[in-house]
């Protein structure tokens, strides 16, 4: 792989052991994937922060990096931690909470600015900007909505990119593909949840292909966010070209593409009847809510009668919203419900508007999950008492 | 010899690395498939110090953290070989400083492990079976055959490809000594035994080593130096005629007082002493053996101890010389 003079110096250890180790990993990963060179990035976003995901092994790696004096050299954000920091007395062993705190502290000491899965609400990248982001929903958002460029990085590579300010030049950094194999038509979603449901089906149907998607023009950005987060749940690719949204979408050739149509009847199967939910946890904020969504939701409900409503948001919003007076509404700043063992809190089912959460909650949080439209969820919490 | 070409992924060049081969024709997800406290893969063999060949890595991106943790605890493999290169495999290898190679088809490597896991080396871009030649030497009654067979059983229990063989190998040669069908001189005796040995090595032992097997040899070239040396032949000549024979990877000398040894032999079966079993000659042979052991050609183990202790000491020597840990499956 070609390295410029500064990168050679990093590799040789002139900038310290941590930088040398970090760039070595990026170079080797890049070489293995056929990348010709590295590229400078301005914002890294690290995944693998929840103690329930990375365990002692991840904590050890991060602490070793910190001990070797690793510091982020560029703007760096990180995924949310497990939503347990305010729940020490509610079912988690103290040592679990302590380990999660250690991960957060180590990353903060290295320079993480905020814990969230929506780093674009912390710092919005510009069109054409090169990033090293690891959270799949954020990768898709950056590439497909903002026209920024990022590989779909693994947590470790993003972590090391934050230290070096480099990643390998994958195809995401070259620009939009010249043509796509599929053009997808979706019926206009009436709720952000429906956008997510379409995203999940499209992602699962296309496997590794980048599609051009018609039907999401003129929507508020959080519809796009839900669509792309769920799309990334079903597909391993880094981009979905959104007609009318993705900068440069007009230049993508669709003449030989196959056309696929998804209608309301296709997504209905994801909305199954809610059964056996005695004390449900209602969840909004997967991915994290924007400030507009948060204020909109809080404007519509005063409190929750039965069960609890969790609103998961970026760490930076936790400081500006006061909900102390709202009954059974919890805001988890910088927390993620999906990567938290909710079963340990005695939760057995979650009702959410997120198709991404619908997929991951049973696997990661140990609970049953039901998908409802956001408008319905807000009616449900308002009507129970 | 089956040699499998490999493509280095994380290192352009690598010094020779040898070890026991573990193969799995499937994708492994380190989180779930590897026990990070013991290094066991899918509840079977440990991957510690092994050369591990798998189809590829899958699953959570936590995988590299687990390999890193194994490395820090001394439980990591010596080398990784994958058919499918992906970010997780590369990241695991680089952060843990383990050489990673790509192979065209994992099934090519699996063949090497068909009859128990092979000992192999990675060298000059190739995976080559190396096997191991273990010579068990000693005067009569020292317990060579018993110890060798115990060793064989342990290796097989641990899943290795292993055989036991002995010298003289060919019946026709043994009969010359038993029937005295030829007038023997110390020189002709030595040359007959050495001839037997060259054929045995070339036709039996080498073939097994080339498949990565472990060959436990009950007597080897040191026997000729000791016994025919005891008849007064110059040791340099005995070495000279054997110089094209391979050196064993491990050469153990089981030491016992010859009188004790012969007593054991007579006790074990209703039998009389054979042609070679003459106390005075054995005394001289022992002196030569002890001299070779003092020069480091052979590793001495006190064979007057109880059998289980002798076996344990021999295993210690084998483990040390071959970089193995076969004790774990010996019980």
Topology of this protein?
The complex is a heterodimer of chains A (385) and B (331).
Chain A: H1 5-12, H2 17-32, E1 38-40, E2 43-46, H3 51-67, E3 75-78, E4 81-82, H4 94-110, E5 130-133, H5 136-146, E6 149-152, H6 155-164, E7 166-168, E8 182-186, H7 192-206, E9 211-214, H8 221-234, E10 241-242, E11 258-262, H9 264-267, E12 281-289, H10 291-300, E13 308-313, H11 315-318, E14 329-333, E15 335-336, E16 349-352, H12 355-365, E17 368-371, H13 374-383
Parallel strand pairs in A: 2-3, 2-5, 4-15, 5-6, 8-9, 8-11, 9-10, 12-13, 12-16, 13-14, 16-17
Antiparallel strand pairs in A: 1-7
Helix pairs in contact in A: 1-2, 2-6, 3-4, 5-8, 7-8, 8-12
Chain B: E1 4-8, E2 17-28, H1 30-33, E3 34-35, E4 40-41, E5 51-57, H2 63-72, E6 79-82, H3 87-96, E7 100-103, H4 106-110, E8 119-123, E9 126-129, E10 132-138, H5 144-157, E11 162-166, H6 171-179, H7 186-209, E12 214-218, H8 221-230, H9 235-240, E13 250-255, H10 258-268, H11 279-294, E14 299-302, H12 307-322
Task: Note the overall shape of chain B.
Answer: elongated
Query: What's the mean pLDDT score of chain A?
Result: 92
Compute the separation of the termini of chain A in Å.
63 Å
Let me know the largest β-sheet of chain A: 5 strands, parallel
Task: Please indicate the percent range of residues of chain A in DSSP E strands (runs of 2 or more).
Answer: 15-25%
Number of strands of chain A: 17
CATH topology annotation of the largest domain in chain B: Rossmann fold
Second-tier CATH architecture of the largest domain in chain A: 2-Layer Sandwich
Q: Distance N terminus to C terminus of chain B?
A: 33 Å
Q: Count every beta strand of chain B, where a strand is a DSSP E run of 2 or more residues.
A: 14
Can you tell me the number of structural domains of chain A? 3
């Amino acid at each position: 792989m070609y390295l410029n003079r500064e990168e050679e110096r990093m590799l040789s250890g002139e900038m310290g052991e941590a930088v040398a180790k970090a760039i070595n990993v990026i170079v080797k990963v890049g070489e293995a994937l056929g990348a010709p060179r590295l590229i400078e990035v301005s914002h890294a976003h690290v995944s693998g922060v929840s103690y329930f995901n990375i365990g002692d092994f991840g904590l050890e790696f991060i602490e070793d990096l910190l001990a070797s004096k690793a510091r982020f050299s560029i703007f760096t954000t990180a995924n949310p931690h497990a939503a347990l920091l305010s729940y020490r007395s509610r079912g988690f062993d103290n040592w679990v909470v302590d380990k999660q705190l250690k991960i957060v502290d180590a990353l903060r000491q290295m320079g993480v600015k905020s814990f969230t899965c929506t780093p674009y609400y912390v710092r919005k990248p510009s069109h054409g900007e090169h990033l090293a982001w690891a959270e799949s929903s954020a990768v898709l958002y950056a590439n497909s909505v903002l026209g920024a460029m990022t590989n779909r990085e693994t947590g470790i590579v993003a972590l090391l990119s934050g230290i070096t300010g480099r990643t390998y030049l994958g195809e995401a950094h070259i620009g939009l593909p010249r043509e796509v194999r599929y053009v997808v038509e979706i019926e206009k979603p009436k709720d952000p949840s429906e956008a997510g449901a379409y995203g999940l089906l499209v992602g699962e149907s296309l496997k590794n292909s980048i599609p051009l998607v018609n039907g999401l023009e003129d929507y508020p950005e959080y519809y796009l966010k839900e669509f792309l987060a769920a799309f990334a749940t079903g597909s391993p690719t880094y981009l979905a070209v959104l007609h009318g949204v993705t900068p440069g979408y007009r230049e993508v050739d669709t003449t030989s593409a196959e056309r696929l149509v998804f209608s309301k009847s296709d997504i209905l199967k994801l909305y199954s009847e809610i059964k056996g939910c005695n004390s449900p946890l209602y969840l909004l904020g997967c991915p994290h809510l924007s400030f507009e969504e948060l204020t909109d939701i809080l404007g519509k409900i005063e409190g929750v009668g039965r069960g609890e409503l969790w609103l998961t948001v970026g760490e930076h919003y936790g400081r500006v919203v006061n909900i102390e007076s709202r009954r059974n509404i919890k805001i988890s700043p910088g927390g993620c419900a999906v990567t938290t063992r909710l079963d340990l809190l005695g939760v057995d089912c979650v009702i959410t508007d997120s198709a991404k959460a619908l997929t991951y909650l049973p696997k990661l949080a140990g609970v049953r999950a039901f998908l409802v439209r956001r408008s319905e969820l807000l009616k449900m919490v308002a009507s129970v008492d | 010899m089956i040699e499998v070409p490999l493509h280095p992924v994380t290192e352009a060049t690598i010094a020779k690395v040898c070890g026991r081969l573990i193969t799995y024709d499937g994708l492994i997800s380190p989180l779930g498939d590897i026990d990070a406290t013991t290094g066991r893969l899918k509840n079977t063999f440990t991957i510690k110090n092994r050369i591990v060949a798998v189809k590829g890595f899958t699953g959570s991106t936590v995988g590299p953290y687990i390999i890193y943790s194994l490395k820090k605890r001394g439980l990591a493999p010596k080398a990784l070989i994958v058919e499918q290169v992906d970010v997780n495999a590369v990241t695991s290898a680089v952060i843990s400083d383990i050489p990673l190679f790509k192979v065209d088809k994992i099934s090519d490597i699996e063949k090497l492990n068909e009859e128990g896991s092979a000992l192999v080396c990675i060298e000059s871009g190739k995976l080559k079976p190396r096997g191991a030649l273990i010579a068990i030497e000693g005067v009569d009654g020292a317990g060579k055959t018993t110890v060798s067979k115990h060793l064989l059983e342990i290796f097989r229990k641990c899943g290795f490809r292993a055989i036991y063989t002995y010298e003289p190998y060919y019946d026709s040669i043994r009969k010359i000594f038993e029937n005295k069908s030829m007038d023997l001189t110390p020189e002709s005796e030595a040359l007959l035994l050495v001839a037997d040995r060259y054929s045995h090595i070339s036709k039996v032992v080498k073939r097994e080593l080339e498949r990565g097997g472990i060959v436990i040899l009950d007597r080897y070239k040191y026997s000729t130096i000791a016994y025919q040396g005891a008849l007064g032949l110059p040791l340099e000549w005995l070495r000279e005629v054997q110089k094209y024979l391979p050196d064993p990877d491990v050469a153990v000398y089981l030491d016992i007082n010859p009188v004790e040894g012969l007593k054991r032999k007579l006790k074990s079966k209703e039998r009389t002493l054979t042609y070679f079993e003459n106390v005075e000659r054995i005394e001289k042979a022992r002196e030569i053996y002890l001299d070779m052991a003092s020069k480091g050609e052979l590793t001495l183990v006190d064979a007057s101890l109880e059998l289980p202790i002798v076996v344990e000491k021999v295993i210690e020597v084998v483990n040390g010389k071959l970089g193995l840990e076969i004790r774990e499956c010996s019980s």
